[in-house]
Each structure stands twice: as C-alpha cells, then as structure tokens.
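Input record (one chain):
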Amino acid sequence: MQRFCTKRSSFTFSNFNFVKYAEGSERRTTKGNVEFFYITKGSCGELVTQLMFARDLGYFSEATANEMICNLIEVSRMIGGLIKYQSLQIQEKRGEY
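The corresponding structure, as predicted from the sequence alone:
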C-alpha cells in the first residue's frame, strides 16, 4: 500500500506541475506567468525530495531514481530560465513608460 501511495503521490505532483505551468502560461500578464512558474519550479523541488525519500526507502532502484531526479533538476533549470526571460520582459516593459 505504501509503495502505491508513493507512486500515486509522484504522479499527482507531476500532474500538478504541468497544470500549474499551463495555468501560468495562460495568464494575461507576464507577472502572472512568472508567479505560476515559480510555483511549478517549487513543485519540481518537492518531487525531487520525494524521489530521494522513495529511493532511500527502496521503492526505486538507485539508478532509476537518480535518472528521474536528474531529469527533474533539468526541468527545474529550464523553468528557471523561463522565469529569468519573463522577468527581463517585465523589466523592459517598465523601462518603456
């Protein structure tokens, strides 16, 4: 049962990540986008932590867990780049006024 809960929790957080990303990208303002991208990035961090616990408890092999963790860290970096880009857009718009 506990193994199922860990898998279900990971699946839920993954879905939450993409739903928040999609919701953020549909905001009318760049600032609104950035706020949701930060939420998505934070969710990636939560999932990385859960995967570390699951690996340490033996729910995943070390190789499998480490691969998933590395992929999530890369996704988090990409979201960070998107946040940086969007934040620069906000700064440029402020300079136009």
